[in-house]
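Thread: Newbie trying to understand structure tokens

Hi all, I'm a second-year student working on a class project, and my supervisor (Dr. K.) asked me to get a predicted structure for one chain before our next meeting. I've only ever worked with sequences, so writing a 3D structure as a token string is new to me. If someone could post the tokens and maybe explain what I'm looking at, I'd be very grateful. Here's the chain:
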Amino acid sequence: MPRARSCPERVLCLEIPGERSLETAGADERVKRAFKERKSFYGAPRLAHDFKESGDSLNRKTVAASLRRQGLRAKAARKFKATTNSKHDLPVAPNLLAQDFTAFAPNQKRVGDIPYLWTEEGWLYLAVVIDLFFRMVVGWAMGERRTANLACDALQMALWRRGMSRGVIVHSDRGSQYCSAQYQALLTRHDLICSMSGKGNCFDDACAESFFSSLKVEVIHGNRLQTREAMRRTVFEYIAVNYNRIRRSSSIGYLSPESFEAKFAASFGVHDL
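---
Reply by user tm_fold:
Sure, no problem. This is what the structure looks like when written as tokens:
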């Protein structure tokens, strides 16, 4: 409601909200709505790209100021606890990736890992394979035990989905699942190049760690799932719908993996990646 203010002419005046105040209020409302639609996971950079894509004029600086003004902070990623069993006598591969997670073409470098997910029914293990060019999860598998079969199933899915590409560097930790004869035979059969992290160095597999941190913050944290089947459905939806199709990645120009893939395919006339 307009409030009274003193005037030099000693006449009662009404203070009408200025044009800038109305613009600020409107921007705050749009930012707050977009922030809630993204379930409090997006900060200024990703929200600004959402606005740009929708034709809204709000830029990153304006969005950041609005978030600060309203006390809105994106949920921060937390470290995801992995379960590497490197206490074995199996042969290990050299670290060919050497923390260089850049890729200049599809099917050049991939990373994988297997952490565990807690449900009221017990643990569920998730194996993933991520293509570093598109930052896309191209293969995944879930099971009640952390086995070589699980690692192989995720890799096999990646092979089926990406056209059986050969000569790809596939990086993982030194877990017994990845060092197993079964997994190594699968790599050899498809002419894939094995790379492994240094002992106890989580930074050597930082891209996989980043994915699992996002999964934990955006889906699992604060969401107690009763059964493994409920967790399977939740994780499947997150990977297939949210992470690959919608979620913007800063490493690929704040596009989603599938949008980046489509843009790449259109630019180079590629139809089968």
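A couple of things are worth pointing out once you decode it. The first helix runs from residue 19 to 37. The beta strands are 3-5, 13-15, 109-113, 116-119, 122-131, 136-143, 169-172, 193-196. Feel free to ask follow-ups in this thread.
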